[in-house]
Amino acid sequence: MPVINSIEEIALTAGGGTINLLTTSGVSLYIITGTATLTSNWTIQPSGTPVIGMTYSFLYKANIDLDTSDITIFGETLPTNLADKEFRAESVWNGTAWVTSFLPDISEDNVIPFEAITLGQTEFTVIG
Tens digit of pLDDT for each residue in 8-59? Predict the structure, then answer.
């Protein structure tokens, strides 16, 4: 059975800022959009009291040039190689802290850095 998401857009602009996402909002998917070269950091963070297992899901569709700035989602800094790629992210409250995972689409160019792949093997090893 398909999931019908309650969607909210987060539009990133060059100027940066802080976006507080309410723990009581009921939004099931946040779509992050925007095309910009950042001049300041962006922070996306929760606001309110979480419960164990609370999950925030993100679909990142932005094309951002970080320059010297960062994008932080629930305490985790976005890896620079994902700033202009489409991917999903998920933040889960484990009862003590938010655990944020970036889930890249490996079909995107340059998602897995060349240095992270051991060549000449039937398998590859991701470092870090």
Answer: 999 999 999 999 999 999 999 999 999 999 999 999 999 999 999 999 999 9
Give the pairing of strands 35-37 and 42-47: unpaired
Q: What's the alpha-carbon Rg for the chain, to the nearest Å?
A: 16
DSSP notation for 18-86? EEEEETTS---EEEEE-EEE-SS-EEEEEES---TT-EEEEEE--EEE-TT--EEETTEEPPGGGTTS-
What's this model's pTM, rounded to 2 decimal places?
Answer: 0.83
DSSP state of 99: E
| C-alpha–C-alpha distance, residues 94 and 19, integer Å | 21
Q: Work out whether the CA dihedral 111, 58, 60, 79 comes out positive or negative.
A: negative
- Chain-centre distance for alpha carbon 17: 16
What is the chain's mean pLDDT, rounded? Answer: 88
Nearest to 16, CA basis, from 66, 83, 89, 63: 66
d(CA 86, CA 59) in angstroms, rounded, equals 7
